């Protein structure tokens, strides 16, 4: 399992003691974007380019996900 830090308030230390097997923490830049924000952008017809991989954008478009 790999875990990415989402916010400064998250407690990654809790992952190390949870009965979930081996956990590897991945250090990467924090992005101020959430899945809720991405869904709202799609629903409003706004671009999510650079916020998610192109393969995800393709699936959302193909299946017309998150449209109102």
Please tag this protein with its features.
single chain; 68 residues; alpha+beta; 2 domains; two-stranded parallel ribbon; 3 helices; 9% strand; elongated
Q: How would you explain this protein's 3D organization?
A:
The protein is α+β, with helices and mostly antiparallel strands and 68 residues long. It has two domains: 29 residues, no CATH class; 38 residues, no CATH class. 34% of the residues lie in helices and 9% in strands. The chain is built from three helices and two strands, in the order βαβαα. A two-stranded parallel ribbon has the order 1-2. The longest helix has 9 residues. The radius of gyration is 15 Å and the shape is elongated. The relative contact order is 0.15.
State mean pLDDT (0 to 100 scale).
80
Query: If you compute it from the alpha carbons, what radius of gyration comes out, rounded to the nearest whole angstrom?
Result: 15 Å
Shape label: elongated
Number of helices: 3
Q: What fraction of residues sit in β-strands?
A: 5-15%
Q: How many individual domains?
A: 2
**Main sheet characteristics:** 2 strands, parallel
Structural class from helices and strands? alpha+beta
* Euclidean distance between termini CA atoms: 34 Å
β-strand number: 2
Strand order of the largest sheet: 1-2
Helix content: 25-40%
- Following the backbone from N to C, one meets helices and strands in this order, namely EHEHH
> Uncertain runs with pLDDT below 50, 5 residues or more?
none
Oligomer: single chain
């Amino acid at each position: 399992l790999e875990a990415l830090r989402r916010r400064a308030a998250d407690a990654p230390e809790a992952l190390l003691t949870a009965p979930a097997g081996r956990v590897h923490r991945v250090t990467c830049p924090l992005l101020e974007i959430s899945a809720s924000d991405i869904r709202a952008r799609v629903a409003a017809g706004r671009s999510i380019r650079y916020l998610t991989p192109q393969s995800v954008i393709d699936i959302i478009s193909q299946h017309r996900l998150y449209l109102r």
